[in-house]
């Protein structure tokens, strides 16, 4: 059963953000400096309609006041407003982007440090969605909303203060509009967070479904599950549409409320303006300036309305990102394992993904220097057994031990010293060949690296002009599949574990370089305990013991010769294999 990472609550999110803010040098000083700059810009911006109102009074009264002088003051106010607001936006945006960058690194670092079975249980689609879609959504929300929020917030506050300063009766405008704001905000915030969180969760589920279909396309085709997988993806995609429509509908209702607020505000402003002019408390120009302030509020209010959608979506993404880091992995204390030898025992293990047993009552023993091969049709449970032995999954019952210690209780250092797993899907990290190999052994010498490359028969290395300094991966030399597999096997030799789990790691042996890749695999398993999920039955035939799996159970076991004589499932597989080769 999939156990997604949690979504953080507001107190948890606030705590994590505060921690990351403290990590930015002089974050508090930068924040208050940005606030001062934005406040100066907002005050200067309010001075613009006031100056326009003065021009109205000059024209009406035909006074000697210079329109040119007022115009100069108007231009100066505009320049101050623009420059200080832009400066404040820059300081505030730089601070927030640094926090987002730290949060992104924290999430990735936490995910890399989590037990692998925890990531597997949560589903890689959920983690991929949080580390890509949610990070992108949060970054977009910060980039788009910080300037608008700052500008709109200060514009509203300074406008309210300026109106009250002009005449206390404009307080009635605030009194008339504020209750509607509060009602609209409470109604919106009561339903919006849950709807946006549901939208993000449905997007994660869609990503998981698509990844499952792509990565398992071989199994999907083999069992004719194309229509079923298509229907699952369609259902997940339609959930995204429905949750997205629900979130947008919330925004539409909020817009209706905001239009009502604007109408009430302008109506109240006109009434107050008429009363103050009639009583002589204010001039026509002053009232004109006040109304221009109210009209200019339409931009900030509409800006806030537009970004609330992005803010809610961004907060939903932030809560999902923080959900990964709120419970960072705790270092596993050493289990007190004895010196590494490589004794492996899988005792009566069963495991379920939530719908029936994937593996049931499987037992096997591997002594140092022995190789046990597992064969069977796709879906027989071979890879699940390999994952259980590698510690990627925790068995529902039974035990998996190495040197007498449960695999899942070993500390990182104890596990790395004893156990390594390599599959058909290997990754060539971007960087130099030396950097790629040093991931397995940081202090490895050039001589050691060259030695392991020769031991895995990587003849292509001798043709690299820059040797270990050759850049490989996405930004460099693109290694062929066989070469990439040999590089992965070379890393394992540098790591030098006592137990090796190979999950169809030589499946590429059917292509050019088959013998070199097979020899490399034999070099890795020599003098080590090895569990080999065999894609090629000729590889399985060399093992000391062969386990034949079907529907999650071991149905046959023995040596190659014994199983051929038994005239059972293995003999059928071998006959089909040989016929295919012919």
TrEMBL record:
It is found in: Cell membrane. Keywords: ATP-binding, Membrane, Nucleotide-binding, Transmembrane, Transmembrane helix. InterPro entries: AAA+_ATPase, ABC1_TM_dom, ABC1_TM_sf, ABC_transporter-like_ATP-bd, P-loop_NTPase, Type_1_exporter. Gene3D superfamilies: ABC transporter type 1, transmembrane domain, P-loop containing nucleotide triphosphate hydrolases. GO terms for molecular function: ATP binding. The chain crosses the membrane at residues 31-50, 70-92, 146-164, 170-189, 252-275, 281-297. Residues 344-576 form the ABC transporter domain. Residues 32-313 form the ABC transmembrane type-1 domain. The keyword ATP-binding applies. It is a multi-pass membrane protein. Signal peptide: none annotated. This is ABC transporter, ATP-binding protein. It comes from Corynebacterium ammoniagenes DSM 20306. The lineage of its organism: Bacteria, Bacillati, Actinomycetota, Actinomycetes, Mycobacteriales.
């Amino acid at each position: 059963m999939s156990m997604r990472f949690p979504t953080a609550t507001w107190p948890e999110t606030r705590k994590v953000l505060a921690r990351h803010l403290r990590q930015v040098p002089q974050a508090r000083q930068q924040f208050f400096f940005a606030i001062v700059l934005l406040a100066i810009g907002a005050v200067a911006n309010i001075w613009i309609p006031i100056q326009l109102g003065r021009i109205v009074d000059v024209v009406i009264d035909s006074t000697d006041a210079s329109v040119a002088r007022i115009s100069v003051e108007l231009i100066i106010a505009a320049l101050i407003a623009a420059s200080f607001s832009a400066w404040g936006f820059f300081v505030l945006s730089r601070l927030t982007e640094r926090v987002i960058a730290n949060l992104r690194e924290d999430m990735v670092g936490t995910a890399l440090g989590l037990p692998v079975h925890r990531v597997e249980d949560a589903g890689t689609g959920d983690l991929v969605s949080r580390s890509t879609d949610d990070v992108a959504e949060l970054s977009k929300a910060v980039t788009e909303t910080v300037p608008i929020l700052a500008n709109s917030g200060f514009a509203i506050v300074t406008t309210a203060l300026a109106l009250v300063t002009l005449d206390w009766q404009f307080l009635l405008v605030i009194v008339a509009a504020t209750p509607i704001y509060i009602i609209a905000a409470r109604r919106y915030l009561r339903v919006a967070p849950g709807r946006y969180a549901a939208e993000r969760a449905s997007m994660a589920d869609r990503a998981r479904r698509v990844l499952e279909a792509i990565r398992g396309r071989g199994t999907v085709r083999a069992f004719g599950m194309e229509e079923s997988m298509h229907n699952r993806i369609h259902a997940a995609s339609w959930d995204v549409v429905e949750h997205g429509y629900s979130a947008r509908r919330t925004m539409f209702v909020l817009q209706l409320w905001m239009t009502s607020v604007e109408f009430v505000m302008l109506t109240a402003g006109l009434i107050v303006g008429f009363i103050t002019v009639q009583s002589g408390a204010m001039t026509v120009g002053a009232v004109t300036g006040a109304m221009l302030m109210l009209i200019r509020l339409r931009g900030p209010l509409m800006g806030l309305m537009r970004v609330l959608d992005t803010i809610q979506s961004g907060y939903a993404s932030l809560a999902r990102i923080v959900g990964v880091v709120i419970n960072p992995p705790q270092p596993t204390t050493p289990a007190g394992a004895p010196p590494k030898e490589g004794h492996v025992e899988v005792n009566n293990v069963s495991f379920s993904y939530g719908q029936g047993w994937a593996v049931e009552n499987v037992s096997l023993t591997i002594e140092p220097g022995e190789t046990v091969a597992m064969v069977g049709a796709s879906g027989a449970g071979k890879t699940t057994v390999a994952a259980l032995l590698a510690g990627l999954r925790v068995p529902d019952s039974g035990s998996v031990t190495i040197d007498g210690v449960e695999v899942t209780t070993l500390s990182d250092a104890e596990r790395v010293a004893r156990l390594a797993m390599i599959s058909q899907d290997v990754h060539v990290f971007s960087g130099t060949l030396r950097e790629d190999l040093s991931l397995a052994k940081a202090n490895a010498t050039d001589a050691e690296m060259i030695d392991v490359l020769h031991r895995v028969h990587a003849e292509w290395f001798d043709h690299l002009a820059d040797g270990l300094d050759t850049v490989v991966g996405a930004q460099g030399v693109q290694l062929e599949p066989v070469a990439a597999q040999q590089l992965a096997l070379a890393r394992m030799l540098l790591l030098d574990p006592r137990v090796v789990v190979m999950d169809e790691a030589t499946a590429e042996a059917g292509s050019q370089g088959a013998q070199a890749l097979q020899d490399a695999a034999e070099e890795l398993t020599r003098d080590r305990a090895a569990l080999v999920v065999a894609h090629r039955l000729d590889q399985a035939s060399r093992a000391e013991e062969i386990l034949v799996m079907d529907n999650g159970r071991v149905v046959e076991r023995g040596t190659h010769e014994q199983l051929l004589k038994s005239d059972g499932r293995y003999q059928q597989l071998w006959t089909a294999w040989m016929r295919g080769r012919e």
